[in-house]
Request: fold
Amino acid sequence: MSNRIELGVITGMANDLVPAFDEIRGVGLSRCQVACWEPAFYTKDNIQMVKAACAGTGVEISALWTGYPGPQVWNFIEGPTTIGLVPPEYRAMRVDALIAGAEFAAECGVFTTATHAGFIPENPRDPLYAGTIEALTKVAVRCKELGVTFTFETGQETPTTLMRAIQDIGTNNLGINLDPANLLMYGKANPVDALDLLGPLVRGVHGKDGEYPTNPNELGEEKPLGEGKVNYPVFLPKLRSFGFEGSVTIEREISGPQQIADIKRAIEILSPLCA
Reply:
């Protein structure tokens, strides 16, 4: 296969991205996703800051990961009523935040956004389903006007539910930011098998590892890449067979020196698989 897979790292939005981009260059990479949870960052000054940071460091942003205001509880109990566009009480402000993020991304020259849509109901006749699809469609339509691909990060819904939602939205500018560890940690799918359904729509991947839940109230444990149950030596060649040419963005949800060490180890593991 000749299609190329690039490695990157996820980093958070800041008033000055140069230090984070310098760290990315320091581990030998030149691509990233930038995650932003605060719409207050979406200003004209920050558009120029982002462009200058990319130009000055040579780091390319593959996608803007757009968060949203309001509570988010990352477990199985409060998660369904707090995350994404499923909870009706948060939909309007989160639609606005996701659209603002897409507009900001386009102005920065970044034409892919990603987010967690929430625990999309598996039953399409669930009263929450129609409202969720309506809200997501508003975001997707605006993204299409901007030339932006709107991608769903996997995790909180089964692959079948996610594909149904994408078909029901039907705007043809939708894709998947596939986090294989999330599929395990939320207990929704084996990531290798999930590619049979999701593979053609994968536009980006989070290079992360994890395990299935052992407590029915809590997500499975995130692990350093190579120590969890994501079988990257099988997963990446299978993904490549669908023509994937996007980025594998390394994500390690801890901080400090151990995070850097785990990122470097992930690079060692993933580099030959992406070559």
Notes: Residues 127-146 form the longest helix (20 residues). DSSP finds nine helices and ten strands in the chain.
